[in-house]
């Protein structure tokens, strides 16, 4: 009875209430994502207890991963959430140490690296040669394993002109653009199709082509020419002078190289009576030993015959021959084509009026592959086959004397190199 009575007596003793437990929830525990470079994966730390939770340590298991800066210890009040940003590619574990009942929580992070788009040219194909005044169709395909084709930004560009066009791919990834001829420079160049995904990753494809067209050398400028013998340039007129019997003179523009089998030259020429005439020379830049050829009948380029001591210059020459010599292809004034200065083996040859009259006359010649065409004073006088192989040539002129001191003059020179000759 006494024991029961004692049990019912309240002695006024009080006990402090129990401290509420902190709680922590990591959301989500597993993250799988595809990410752009440096785009973070976000993990939430939620305070789920009746008191604030304190996060003491954050670390990732893979050294290739990083965490955005966080001030630790991190106190999170009940019901609040803190966001942690992790960056990396592949799989890693985020370890969170706190004062919650479960001291460490682990979240698994998996990020698949962003893949660059793919690009492929259909047209032009490499080494395409595009004719003058022809529009060029650019066609390519683009794609991306990570992103929708509609999300790709696609452009065409050139290494010579820069941006060409922004284009939109169709559902198959095909893009195309018609590049007008007037917008393209002549010469070898590269065109690029570039696909960019929303992450900024780039996929490129390139095609090399050559836009045919003229490279034009004009006018006659003093600093561009090399002289052998007496020569002078005044007011864009080149004057070659020979003052001794059997002498020769040449002038060559060494600063520009032309294709030996694809070139066009037009000029005006004035010849005084008493000379041999004038030669239009394309000197082989790789095989030449000097810059002046035969005197006498050699017109500064030829050799191999009795009326000149040579030497013969490699390359080709068109001789405007106004003086008859033994062994000439004709005994009257004529034009004759020679290869490698070999005056024993003239190529196409045609009689012409004598133009050593002190007047200005126009001459235009065109070599294209195996064909030579020549116009004199606007009249076509030669249209014949030739066997000229590709070589790198420098353009010039030569003359020589037969009896009297003479001068030969050239003006209004225009030399055109067709840029897409490949040498085959």
Biggest sheet features: 8 strands, antiparallel
Q: Stretches where pLDDT falls below 50 for ≥5 residues?
A: 1-15
CATH class of the largest domain: Mainly Beta
How large is the share of residues in beta strands? over 45%
Distance between the termini: 127 Å
How many domain units? 3
What is the number of strand segments?
Answer: 32
**Total DSSP helices:** 1
State the helicity in percent bands.
Answer: under 10%
What's the overall average pLDDT, rounded? 87
CATH architecture label of the largest domain:
Sandwich
Q: Tell me, what's the shape?
A: rod-shaped
Find the CATH topology of the largest domain.
Jelly Rolls
Gyration radius, to the nearest Å? 43 Å
What structural category arises from helix and sheet content? mainly beta
What's the arrangement of secondary structure elements?
Blueprint: H1 2-7, E1 24-27, E2 30-35, E3 41-47, E4 53-60, E5 66-67, E6 74-76, E7 81-87, E8 90-98, E9 104-113, E10 118-123, E11 128-130, E12 136-143, E13 153-158, E14 162-167, E15 174-179, E16 187-196, E17 202-211, E18 214-217, E19 225-228, E20 230-234, E21 237-242, E22 248-259, E23 262-271, E24 277-284, E25 315-321, E26 334-339, E27 349-351, E28 360-368, E29 371-376, E30 379-385, E31 392-400, E32 406-418
Parallel strand pairs: 2-9, 11-17
Antiparallel strand pairs: 1-3, 3-7, 4-6, 4-8, 5-7, 8-9, 10-12, 12-15, 13-14, 13-16, 16-17, 18-32, 19-22, 20-21, 21-32, 22-31, 23-28, 23-32, 24-25, 24-31, 25-26, 26-27, 28-29, 29-30
């Amino acid at each position: 009875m006494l024991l029961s009575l004692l049990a019912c007596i309240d002695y006024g003793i009080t006990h402090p209430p129990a401290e509420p437990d902190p709680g922590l929830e990591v959301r989500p525990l597993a993250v799988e994502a595809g990410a752009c470079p440096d785009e973070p994966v976000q993990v939430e730390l939620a305070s789920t207890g009746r008191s604030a939770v304190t996060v003491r340590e954050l670390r990732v298991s893979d050294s290739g991963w990083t965490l955005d800066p966080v001030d630790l210890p991190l106190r999170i009040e009940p019901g609040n959430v803190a966001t942690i940003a992790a960056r990396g590619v592949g799989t890693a574990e985020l370890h969170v140490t706190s004062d919650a009942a479960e001291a460490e929580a682990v979240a698994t992070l998996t990020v698949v690296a962003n893949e660059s788009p793919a690009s492929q040219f259909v047209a032009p194909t490499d080494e395409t040669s595009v004719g003058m005044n022809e529009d060029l169709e650019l066609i390519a395909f683009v794609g991306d394993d990570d992103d929708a084709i509609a999300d790709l930004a696609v452009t065409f560009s050139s290494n010579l002109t820069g941006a060409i066009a922004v284009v939109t791919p169709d559902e198959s990834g095909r893009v195309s653009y018609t590049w007008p001829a007037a917008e393209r420079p002549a010469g070898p160049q590269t065109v690029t199709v570039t696909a960019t995904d929303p992450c900024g990753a780039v996929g490129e494809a390139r095609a090399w082509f050559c836009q045919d067209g003229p490279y034009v050398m004009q006018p006659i400028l003093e600093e561009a020419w090399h002289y052998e013998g007496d020569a002078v340039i005044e007011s864009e007129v080149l004057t070659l002078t020979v003052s001794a019997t059997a002498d020769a003179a040449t002038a060559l523009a060494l600063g520009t190289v032309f294709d030996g089998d694809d070139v066009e030259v037009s000029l005006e020429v004035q010849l005084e009576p008493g000379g041999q005439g004038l030669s239009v020379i394309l000197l082989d830049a790789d095989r030449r030993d000097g810059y002046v050829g035969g005197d006498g009948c050699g017109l500064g380029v030829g050799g191999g015959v009795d009326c000149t001591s040579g030497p013969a210059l490699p390359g080709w020459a068109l001789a405007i021959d106004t003086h008859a010599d033994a062994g000439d292809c004709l005994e009257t004034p004529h034009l004759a084509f020679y290869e490698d200065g070999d005056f024993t083996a003239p190529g196409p040859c045609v009689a012409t009026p004598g133009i050593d009259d002190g007047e200005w006359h126009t001459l235009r010649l065109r070599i294209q592959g195996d064909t030579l065409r020549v116009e004199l004073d606007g009249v076509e006088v030669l249209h014949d086959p030739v066997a000229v192989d590709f070589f790198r040539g420098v353009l010039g002129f030569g003359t020589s004397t037969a009896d009297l001191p003479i001068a030969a003059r050239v003006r209004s020179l225009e030399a055109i190199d067709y840029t897409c000759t490949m040498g085959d």
